[in-house]
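Workshop exercise sheet. Pairs work together: one partner reads the sequence aloud, the other fills in the structure field after running the prediction. Swap roles for the next sheet.
Pair: D.N. / O.F.
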Amino acid sequence: SAGMAGIVFQWWGGKPGSLDVVGDLVPIIMGALVYFLLNSSFIAIVAGLSQGISPVDIWISRVGSVVINYLVLIPLAVLIAILFIRDGIPGVLLLVIPLALARFSFQQYTNMRNLYIQTIKAIVAAVDAKDSYTRGHSDRVREHCVAMARELRLPEREQEVIEYMALLHDTGKIGISESILNKPGRLTDEEYQAIQEHPVIGARIVSEVDFFKKASAIVRHHHEWYNGEGYPDGLKGEDIPLGARIIAVADAFDAMTSERPYRGVRSTAEALAELEAYAGRQFDPRVVEAFLRVMLRNRGRL
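Structure field:
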């Protein structure tokens, strides 16, 4: 990427060893554009091949979040080049050292974020240990939600939040009696009312983590219905957070295709037909369509 950017810089009139910001503006922009397109494309291709996802979809979904970084780096790269031409390595070091300190601070933030992720995994493991029928459910829901978020081409940051909330969507089951969670049969009205409390309990738990406070509404509302007949608050349509609407589809699909105490396993085709039948009533039609496209592309293997 860097080599090709250098070739393009010279092809547009730039000269190695000298730099005129005004006179070389076009070569700088063209070189930076080529670097961005090649580098981001290579990353998307590698990610797509490793994850079995279309590189084009990955590139489109993430370009918005990375283009700003590249735009910031262009003047920084020009400044480093000017300092190197004028003052050599000592001049570059005067700029690089503060940047290294800034990177260290960012690394600390990343470490804290990883700590949050480890906390999520511990909570999910606790839920799985309590409800034997849904072991692995949260991780499967996470996979489906990530695929749908990418299909809908949501911003990368929003995809990340939805992924975390998908893992945590059943956290509230920690507060539900194991006898209810593992009951081998249909629930009574009282038991069903107790189960309906788990989104509220889960949102309360998630909101205690500052990193997830704003996103806790996704957990609270993942059992709302698109037509307003769901719980706990009877939200309707676009009033339901998009992340919750995505989780609702993934949650229902995995529930239908997994062994549960009150019914047998449905086939992938049967589950998808059920989602289509309830699109516009229980589920957001746009989200259902996205999930169907994902499953068709992956032939139900996701």
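Discussion prompt: The mean pLDDT is 86. What would you look at next?
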